[in-house]
Amino acid sequence: MFLHERHFEAPTELDFLQHCRVIRQYIDQGTTALFSPYVAAFLISRTGRILDIDERSTTFLRLGAVLGIHHNKIWSPEPNFNALLSSAIERVARLGKAETLICECEPAGKTRYMILLQPNAGAGKIQTEPSQNVACMVFPLGRRRIASARQLMLLFGLSAAEARLARALCHGETLEEYAGSQGVKLPTIKTQLRAVFAKTKTDRQVTLVSLISGIPPLR
Q1: Nearby residues of 208 by Cβ (< 8 Å), 6 or more positions away
Q2: By percentage, how much of the chain surpasses pLDDT 90?
Q3: Is residue 161 packed enough to be buried (19+ CB in 10 Å), middle (13-18) or exposed (0-12)?
Q4: CA-wise closest residue to 111 among 142, 136, 87
Q5: Residues 153-206: tens digit of each pLDDT
Q6: Residue pLDDT, tens place only, 50-68
Q7: Cβ contacts of residue 194 below 8 Å, gap of 6+?
Q8: For 49, left (φ over 0), alpha (ψ -120 to 50), or beta?
Q9: Which of 36, 48, 58, 126 has its CA 20 to 30 A from that of 209?
Q10: How many Å apart are CA 154 and CA 200, to the nearest integer?
Q11: Cα within 13 Å of Cα(91), Cβ side
């Protein structure tokens, strides 16, 4: 509201806040449209310094199993993978071409994750200046392909938070697990679930999962 009404007289303050808003819109829209099952999404510099991150992603990174935060930089607890990740980030920033990595940091038998590194500008062009930033998205492998959050929002009028909860239930997460991963209190999640039931005209989690699992995902 402040930005639209231009309550700031200093051009530098206005430019900075508009820049922050563009970054947030870029990450939110990109991950919602393309990779709705993501568990972390953030913007990093060529050197791996974190430029923008939300609470959900911060909570995931603080677990330190896949990636972590060290001195405001992204890092891996596995030295070999850490070197591989750093090289990939530098290439994406320099060449403007997306890359994907499979994270092998966790012990065998646990969830494996894929890391997508996507240049945020000038895709397909070689950069002459080392100033390009990189959007990093982390999501688990092996999950079923179900309707995206955007589809559920359009079909049933769900909010973004309600759509994410519905998809998490389809992936087998319990309410307690989801609340913990999101950093949200359980009563809040239960309130969201009741809203999802009302909007989808279901009354049990199994019925909700059956309904959403039958919706073909748009690719």
Answers
A1: 166, 169, 196, 197, 200, 202
A2: 30
A3: middle
A4: 142
A5: 999 999 999 999 999 998 888 899 899 888 889 999 999 999 999 999 999 999
A6: 999 988 788 888 877 778 8
A7: none
A8: beta
A9: 58
A10: 12
A11: 13
Give the tokens for residue 164: 């994410």
pTM over 0.85: no
Residue 121 and residue 171: Cα distance in Å, rounded?
32
More confident residue, 183 or 124: 183
Question: How far are the Cα atoms of 1, 10, 18, 22, 94 from residue 6, in angstroms, in the given order?
Answer: 8, 10, 11, 16, 36
- What pLDDT is recorded for position 28? 56
- Is the model's pLDDT at 108 over the cut of 50? no
| CA–CA distances in Å: residue 106 to residues 13, 41, 110, 112, 152 | 43, 19, 7, 7, 32
| Residue 111 to residue 173: CA distance in whole angstroms | 13
Rounded Cα–Cα distance for residues 136 and 115 (Å)? 7
Q: What pLDDT does residue 35 have?
A: 42
Q: What is the mean pLDDT of the chain?
A: 80
Q: Phi and psi dihedrals of 10, rounded to 5? A: -80, 120
Which one, of 189, 136, 138, lies nearest residue 164 by Cα? 189
